[in-house]
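Record type: monomer structure entry
Structure origin: computed from sequence
Chain ID: A
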Amino acid sequence: MTDHYEVEVLLRPPVELASALVAFCGAGMVLVSPGLFMMTPPVALVGAVCLAAIGTWRSLQAWRVVRYQHHLKRTPRYVMPAKAIPTSDSVLFLGRGFRWHQAHTERLYAARDKHAEHYLQPSALTRWVRRKEITWEHTPVLRTLMRWTAKDSALNPVRPPPAVGGDAIIHGVGIRAETNAVMPLSDRVGHMVVVARTRHGKTRLAEILTTQDIRRGNNCVIVLDPKGDADYLKRIYLECQRARRKLLVFHLGYPEMSVSYNAVGSFSRITEVASRIASQLPGEGDASAFREFAWQFVNVIAVALVALNEQPDFVKIRRYINDIDILLVAYGKHWLTQNGEEGWEEEFEAIRNGVHVKSLPRTDQGKDPDAIALVRYLKIHRSFDPVLEGLISAFRYDREYFQKITVAVKPFLEKLTTGNIGAILAPDLDNTEDQRPVLEWKRAIGSQAVVYVGLDALTDPEVARAVGASMFSDLTSLAGHIYKHGIGRSDSDSHRCTAKAPSVVIHGDEFSDLIGPQFKTLINKSGGAGYALNLYTQTWSDPIAELGSEAKAGQLAGNIGTMLIMGVKEIATCEMFTRQLPEVSISEIMAVSGVTDGNENDSGFGFTSNNQDRISISRVPMIAPADIVALPKGQAFVLLKGSELWKIRIPMPSKADDRELPDDLGQMLHQMRQDYRSVVDWQGYRGR
């Protein structure tokens, strides 16, 4: 076998077949005519068995060469029904593959040598059929024959390869050692990023990983899907039905069928409300001053709302940033009722009656007379309250000037509160007619629910980015709470605390669209809170462009434990992966020949010739960026356990066992909503 030689030579004719044929023929002759070989029948039987064993051994060696060359031309189709996806409590199934070693690099270089081209080409008949399929496409009789030759069937001797493109050599060099590629679940808290170009299998891999997470049943599964992929949602819904898991669907594209979510209603510190809104505003150059003003006024409003025992939301913030006088009056009267002197109502009313609109100074023109009277009353009595101080500070701005410095935040709030979207982003908990669940991350994680978030980024990317970033900020804040108290304890309930951090698996497709100011904190420090992030993007330049700095993107990359890369076209992204791999030594055969003229007349030789096969060793990268670019659809390289390079194939879906659902997303959501009661306790998720 070639395994015993310094150089493995598999791209050659299967010469073992000749010796195998001789051995089998000898075995037959010994059995038929033992006397010809002067053997007794028992000895002939033993000899035939030995010769047959030698023939079988040599046939297997030849089969290895033939099969290896066949797989270099064509990668087998890999299809797996949903029910066959393996689920384990210790490992995560990624697909079928093999660990990449130095031998595979050596085989890859050998297969790309010009001398190997003959063994990689399809047969002459196959090439002729492929040409005729195009030529005879519109010929009535021959068209039927060409349809048969174009079928991908094992009965078709000239069947076409799977429509996955790429270079089959990359996986063919190790397919005979293929096994299930798995990742330890303990490595998931180190987070994973999947990089793949469009239509290359990224969403299919997300379906496989999400399916296992749902079936495992001991975690909360959160899927953030900016595009709103219908097949992905269908898979999540079907798996939730099979596993009897609670499912919440939040979708900006279909607000009438979505659960509600208040992106600024949950926080550990009240300043987070202003940070989540202000972070969506431009902060470069002169715009930074307007963002700081916006943060200040939103923070004043949020603090006052909480002091009034009201939950902040986008609708209330928009209302009060347009007219802060109303909030000042409401909070001022509330504070005076609790802390004011006896008889303050009569004194306030007297001051109010003394306010004449026509005699007001220019800076107070257009302001609410009740607010003006309240400020005058508080000034007389020198009452102090930090919330009142903030409201009065905002109130004292000239009205036109106040409108100008808050102009940056108003369009943003308008986008989030217009039409039906406002109803799901600012749920009215006192509205008994609205029976939709309200998504609260703490409740969802505590009950180990499955949450699908469709952000409809193709329709309105600004709103999708704002809501997605707010969700990440909300989850980051909750991670800090889990660090300190566990998921079972609130600030007012100090006697309950989970002994173990919950398992929260987050799948973020096109995650660069969701990056907000707290995303770095989430990916750096959320592992201890039980968060496992699975992030999907098309190139690594996407987060670089979103963050505006390679250094900031490098901070994210430095905190990602597992990277899986599929057929990416961008060389910089490929090099980011390949630079993590070592160089290896490969052996090559170098043919040397030479001729030397004979100088001695009495030697009898006119010249001497010399032919040698030398083995040269060189250092090369384990894989090159071009190998990643050439990956077929559904194939990937992945670094497991920090240093193990695996080449894997992701199974394509087989929908034979799936329940029929319409392909139209709106109809699908409508049908799913009719079945929700079997999966989701609607009333139990109505937040109060």
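Annotation 1: Residues 2-73 form one domain.
Annotation 2: The two ends are 73 Å apart (CA to CA).
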